[in-house]
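Help!! Second protein's tokens look totally different from the first
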Amino acid sequence: MAGMAAKIVSQYFESKETKLNELEEDLLKIGWNFQGGSMVVFFKFDDSDTHVHLEGLDFIRVPEDKFDSMYKVLNECNDSYSHVKFVLDTENGQICARDDDVIQLDSCGAECFELMIRMVKVVEDAYPRFMKAMWA
């Protein structure tokens, strides 16, 4: 059954005229624009097809000398948003948006689409705060 959720999600996105890229049997990727920027969202499904991990990347790069000033904003954002958490990836110098959720095979297409839209909206809302912390 592993990989079935990814197939269902992929088909659902295609029905919405949105193309996902399949990187592996259980890993999908999509690029998405938001006001002020863009991001890449990855969907990683567990072996039982009952959980999905979303990871939003490439929406902001943080120079190493700004890491310390970014932690306060990350904490504020993590306190403000209940479903998406932000993490500073110091190895790659970027902020990551993460979400883990339970899914069901019969509705995982719509669920994952909604989870992605929610993540993009949260990133779009938080983006000016990150930019202000970097350039203040």
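Here's the second one for comparison:
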Amino acid sequence: MKKNLLLMTVLIAIFMVFPVHKAHAIDPVTIAILAPIAIEAAQIAAPYVLRGLKAGGGHMIKMGKDVIEIFCLPLGVIQSTLGMPFGQLGPGIRNIAVGFVAPFKLALDAVLLPIAFCGIGTGT
């Protein structure tokens, strides 16, 4: 019972110290005055936004390639075991290596994705 009372007291104290922020409405006249400025700013920023979207989209396509490469691991295992009599040992081992490395490449690309959407070349 004392723990519950202490917890309630701490929570109430926290909410008293940090007040809840309230939204304030903007009148329509202010919006009408600021709209041309916002349109001009959007036109200036448009090339940079499009460059960032293009770089991020290309990076996501590369991530999709990494996801597909993950399936090379089971394919390589099948090639190197069942396909060994048919000369598939070499390509099977190569596919195992590609499939083993693919999740790490995908994780690196996932970490670099926000940087790619900023329009910065990640080099990978």
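Reply: Different proteins will give different token patterns, so don't panic. The chain has a mean pLDDT of 88.
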